DNA sequence: AAGTGGTCTAGACCACGTG
DNA sequence: ACGTGGTCTAGACCACTTT
């Protein structure tokens, strides 16, 4: 029974009880929580209040929702280093998870203005655009949008892109990035991305943008990643530059 | 009048109208939005629905709330490079904002276990712990918790710490970081941090952890930062390591 | 004292996913 | 067909901030 003398709002007390079942391991990763109506009955609260507790846990990353199927326990975050290119799949597998990449589309498009500006190429130039979806333990965790200058990698789209892109770029085209500019911030997922990840539009995500250049500072690749906010931790190692 | 044929939920249509006033500049940064009750009347909706729209905008980072005072338009994000130590204040001022640092506490404590492990020092060792709050345009934006090995900087706490810590460490103690390990992920703000930032417990934040080492790999500083999720963008430049 | 957001109740209907 | 979450109404009382 809950202590009714406690001043903490009801929804936070419910949150605490549910959080407890998760961190203590009573509810395992990917396990489905009881239905909202069931929870409200169990705690003698309205569904609105139950939802408030659930939304709070979602914000904390402890649970996630899948469309209209229900609420589930979030699996452990993976570590992710956007500055390395040893290959997503092997990197994730090193941590004991399974990973998979799926190519959603690969096309030649007119370069978006911001990509042209960030990459220092002329506006309107045609570039390769690759859209991929990546899974961790069969859960779709990020959408990736990649832009490449065809000048550097002609015929790239003929290859299968469900594997490490950098492995391909290195072995087939002798490309090697020397420097990367990263931009990272929390952002809500817009409709197309959210849909592709099977979550609600407007749910929280983490946005990562990566601009890779070669030794001459010439743009090699620009990559935008839209992650579920609870799927990973960014882990980067930076050496000091002499100024 | 809103198009009632539209399938988009009401709260998202309200969101759109409010978002429009913000991005179009009709409502300026830090301006207060109309009261929830006023909005619900204006749009002929319940307060619950109005709140749903506001919470959505909050998640997107477009507005923020201040205790029970109301909802306000979020000012522009600053760029933040956790790999540099040119000084927070000057870095922010370069971008046209004002900045200020406030020391909340400075003490000698027994090293927390995770700090000892991450820093490679013996558990139980005494270390300096510094707690600071940083403002951008007089808005509290982050809480910083710093751990330092007193061996490297004896007497540090006698200095004023409302300024660039690394300037102090360099000029007074000849310390210079060679390498930094960064860990970055979205996380909700716990009670003490949220209170110190004047926001609700459980609101979204961005967590940054930084471990600085010298050339010999010895731990110099560990720093935990708890940011408002909408206050900044992480911007890091990484040079490729030869593997 | 008045105004604000914070919390909560007790319902309802809808759209979608799963059997 | 049924169970699920997604949305929404029309109220209420409380705690805190501002005037």
Features:
243 residues, DNA-binding, disordered N terminus, alpha+beta, Chorismate lyase, Arc Repressor Mutant, subunit A, homodimer, six-stranded antiparallel β-sheet, 10 strands, 7 helices
Folded structure, characterized:
- Chain A starts with 9 loop residues before the first helix and ends with a strand.
- The first copy, chain A, contains seven helices and ten strands.
- Chain A has helices at 10-23, 36-43, 47-60, 88-94, 113-119, 165-173, 191-197; strands at residues 63-66, 70-73, 78-80, 99-110, 126-136, 139-148, 179-188, 204-213, 219-228, 232-239.
- In chain A, a hairpin with a 5-residue loop joins β8 and β9 (219-228).
- Chain A is elongated, with a radius of gyration of 21 Å.
- The first copy, chain A, is an alpha+beta fold and 243 residues long.
- The relative contact order of chain A is 0.13.
- Residues 1-5 of chain A have low confidence and may be disordered.
- In chain A, 27% of the residues lie in helices and 34% in strands.
- Chain A binds a DNA duplex (19 and 19 nucleotides) through residues 9-11, 35-37, 45-49, 51-52, 65, 67-71, 200.
């Amino acid at each position: 029974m809950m202590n009714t003398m406690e001043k903490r709002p009801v929804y936070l007390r419910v949150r605490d009880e549910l959080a407890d079942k998760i961190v203590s391991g009573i509810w395992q990763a990917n396990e489905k929580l009881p239905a909202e109506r069931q929870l409200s009955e169990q705690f003698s609260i309205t569904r609105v209040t139950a939802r408030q507790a659930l939304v709070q846990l979602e914000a904390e990353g402890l649970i996630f929702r899948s469309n209209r199927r229900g609420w589930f326990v979030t699996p452990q975050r993976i570590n992710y280093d956007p500055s390395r290119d040893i290959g997503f799949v092997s990197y994730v597998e090193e941590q004991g998870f399974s990973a998979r990449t799926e190519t959603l589309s690969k096309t030649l498009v007119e370069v978006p203005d911001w990509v042209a500006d960030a990459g220092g190429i002329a506006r309107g130039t045609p570039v390769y655009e690759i859209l991929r979806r990546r899974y961790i333990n069969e859960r779709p965790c990020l959408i990736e949008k990649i832009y490449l200058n065809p000048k550097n990698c002609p015929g790239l789209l003929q290859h299968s892109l469900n594997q490490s892109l950098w492995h391909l770029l290195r072995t087939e085209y002798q490309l090697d990035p020397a420097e990367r500019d990263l931009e990272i911030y929390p952002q809500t997922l817009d409709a197309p991305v959210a849909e592709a990840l099977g979550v609600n539009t407007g749910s929280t995500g983490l946005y990562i943008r990566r601009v890779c250049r070669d030794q001459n500072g010439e743009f090699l690749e620009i990559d935008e990643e839209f992650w579920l906010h609870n799927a990973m931790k960014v882990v980067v190692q930076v050496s000091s530059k002499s100024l």
